[in-house]
Design brief:
The protein is mostly helical and 181 residues long. It has helices at residues 4-23, 26-42, 44-49, 53-71, 91-101, 103-109, 113-124, 129-135, 140-161, and strands at residues 74-75, 85-86, 163-166, 172-176. Helix 1 packs parallel to helix 4, helix 5 crosses helix 6 and helix 8 (129-135) crosses helix 9. It is globular, with a radius of gyration of 20 Å.
């Protein structure tokens, strides 16, 4: 663990520059930077085991910037904030339309209707689980279990469809199969 700290100290300026060049707002930049540091501390054992620490940490910073834009209703393009577009007002409809044409959308359609509908309404359309539970006249914990089962069923369907290769951190590195594109 001691060997990683000097590397992180060297990365401090690069991290700040990378984040601030994408956000262009000093306070937000500092907030994101602090989030990255917190994640680094929480994941220090994984970070120190990474083969290439610098790209690993930079990817964490990129993900934190993307999360910032996602939270604030903007689309992250990987460029500077000036090039970020506000999310379209009808994003759920666009997302559902795009999802229905995608591989994952097709896999969701194979789920039993009660699970498919719960997953689509909460995860894609953005309805809260409490709202959906009230709409379906069921308990909140019951709906949470239903959504969780739907996610597990979807994961199993996707994993059964294709042969995935994972790296030592659990990230997908390749996918082979007739239906995977």
């Amino acid at each position: 663990m001691q060997t990683i700290l000097p590397i992180l100290a060297q990365l401090e300026d690069k991290l700040e520059q990378r984040i601030c060049s994408r956000v262009n707002h000093a306070d937000c930049c500092e907030d994101i930077l602090q989030d990255v540091y917190l994640k680094l501390l929480q994941r220090l054992p994984q970070v120190s085991k990474a083969e290439n620490v610098i790209p690993y940490v930079m990817k964490m910073a990129d993900n934190a910037v993307a999360d910032y834009f996602r939270k604030n209703g903007k689309v992250f393009t990987g460029a500077t904030e000036a090039e970020h577009l506000p999310a379209p007002a009808n994003e759920p409809e666009n997302l559902v339309a795009r999802l229905s044409d995608s591989f994952v959308g097709q896999m969701i359609q194979t789920l039993p209707p009660i699970y498919r509908d719960a997953l689509l309404k909460t995860e894609i359309e953005g309805m809260s689980q409490k709202q959906l539970a009230a709409e379906l006249d069921m308990s909140y914990s019951g709906l949470k279990s239903r959504v969780q089962r739907a996610k597990e069923m979807l994961r199993a369907a996707i994993l059964n469809c294709c042969d995935f290769e994972f790296d030592k951190y659990g990230n997908i590195v390749s996918c082979c199969g007739e239906d995977c594109t």
